[in-house]
Amino acid sequence: MGDDYERWRQSLPSGSQRTELMDQAVSRAVETARTSRGAGHPISAEAVRAVFLSGGDGARVTALGFMQGDPSTADLDIVLEVISQSRSAAEQAYALAVAAEIARRPDLDDHTAKQLLEAAEDALATEHVRKSHKRRDLAESIVRQLRP
Question: Residue 143 to residues 58, 76, 102, 117: CA-CA distances in angstroms?
Answer without folding.
Answer: 28, 16, 12, 6
